[in-house]
Specification:
This is Putative polya-specific ribonuclease parn-like domain-containing protein 1. This protein is mostly helical and 271 residues long. It has helices at residues 2-6, 23-33, 62-71, 74-83, 93-103, 111-121, 128-138, 141-146, 152-160, 182-206, 217-223; strands at 13-15, 37-42, 45-50, 87-89, 125-127, 230-232, 240-242. The chain is 43% helix and 10% strand.
């Protein structure tokens, strides 16, 4: 295409898009690289014709609409990265792996490289599964009882009417909450995070001699700071992955499970 354009040919040029690439994206790329060339799609491939250069208007064009429609969720991913806002999820290790692999780069072979890349994309990550499990191990009896369920929607139901002063009111819920529905899961994870942060912040504030009052986001953020960038691990010797700094030491587990029958003779299958 470059040689054809430099030769100032008047005849159209037919180009077959490379295998595996969208013809629309190839056409948009050619229009960007060669502003004096018009590119149209046909059954034979791409047809390039020379045109006189025209000043580009700043308004959105049909090409922009096509490009946006082809990018899809990549736009959401880039918005999340550019915002620098905390990323909240529930049991989200697999979600983070998919985001990194599908929208940034193939998963690194090095575990250290994986944490570095993920930290550069999302500086602050909160996993509500890790927060709820950690709080349940350290909290007062009533809070341990409240957080018995580790399922996301069970946590949401338990925290819906928690008797804590100045509980935040969360709006914007979908009409119907369905588990494993993208919109519902995102809303419920965010709601659980806010409620957990409020419960922890309210507990810290109640220990102070000052009278209780509505809390601001800096107080909620301080209450969950210890759980930032820690992602829950399922059925592992480590409870979580630390995206910043070293991971917690692995627990030692017995290599054998010893079973003793109270009867003199018994088959192991019966036990």
């Amino acid at each position: 295409v470059r040689r054809w354009s430099a030769a100032d040919c008047k005849d159209p040029l037919k180009v077959e898009p490379p295998a595996g690439l969208s013809p629309h994206l190839v056409a948009l790329d050619l229009k960007t690289r060669f502003p004096n060339v018009a590119c149209t799609l046909s059954r034979e491939g791409l047809v390039l014709t020379p045109v006189s250069a025209k000043p580009q208007r700043p308004s959105a064009s049909r090409d922009d609409v096509i490009r946006d429609s082809l990018l899809g969720f990549s736009r959401c991913f880039e918005t999340l990265v550019r915002s620098g806002k905390p990323l909240v999820g529930h049991n989200m290790l697999l979600d983070l792996l998919l985001l990194l692999h599908q929208f940034r780069e193939p998963l690194p072979r090095s575990y250290g490289r994986f944490k570095t890349v993920l930290g550069s994309l999302f500086p602050v990550v909160y996993d509500t599964k890790h927060i709820s499990l950690s709080v349940r191990q350290q909290a007062s009896p009533w809070l341990r009882e409240l957080l018995t369920g580790a399922d996301l929607f069970a946590l949401h139901s338990a925290l819906a009417n928690v008797p804590v002063p100045f509980a935040p009111k969360i709006q914007g819920a979908p009409a119907v909450l369905r588990a494993h529905d993208a919109g519902s899961d995102a809303y419920v994870a965010g709601a659980v995070f806010i409620k957990l942060a409020h419960v922890l912040a309210q507990q810290a504030a109640s220990a102070l001699p000052a009278p209780q009052r509505a809390l601001a986001w800096p107080q909620h953020r301080a209450a969950v700071k210890a759980f930032a960038n820690r992602i829950n691990l399922i059925r592992a010797q480590c409870h979580h992955v630390s995206l910043e700094g070293p991971d917690p030491p692995a627990e030692e587990r017995p290599p054998w499970l010893c079973v003793r029958s109270s009867r003199s003779q018994a088959e192991i299958t019966a036990v």
